[in-house]
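Extended Data, panel c. Modelled sequence:
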Amino acid sequence: QIEQLSLRKSKRKYYCNMATLNDGKKGTLALGAHDASAELKCFEITRPEPGPTDVAIDIQYCGMCHSDCHACNGDWGLNFYPIAPGHEISGVVRAVGEKVTNFKVGDKVGVGCMVESCRTCDLCKAGLQQHCPAMVQTYGSTFPEGRGENFKSAEGNHTNGGYTSDITVEENFVFGIPEGMDMKYAGVL
């Protein structure tokens, strides 16, 4: 859990332009690398309110994958700092956009390694969103243009993942967690 990671506001705050939003409001706690030394430090970012097809999620758990380590220390050439990794997310829906049909506030959900694609190219139509040229990874991708007015200040900045207190994700990249499954195990699945 975020609280178990001792992710608390410190006296020193790390503010930066991140996607997520570049609006100066902050409010989302994050744990991430600030350079290739990969030492994780707390900082704050801003997440957008959900657009029409988006789901806002309060993160409860996030697994750790080797890819998180490689992204943080620059092994893969992702030199976006600071960066909050994490793509094995489980949490609870806090808010939904007006066109969301598969989720409601209070649902237990998971998020994997992708949060967006164009949904219009032949690859997306064939169910191969992971190959979409416009696919956006949970962290380390440049946020695309044209997602709506509430995402305007995110355009061109990089995405940040599940080592945060919340995340906003396009509905098609959110997965329901079955009743009875413990949330702490769900994210890594």
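The chain has three helices and nine strands. This feature is highlighted in the accompanying rendering.
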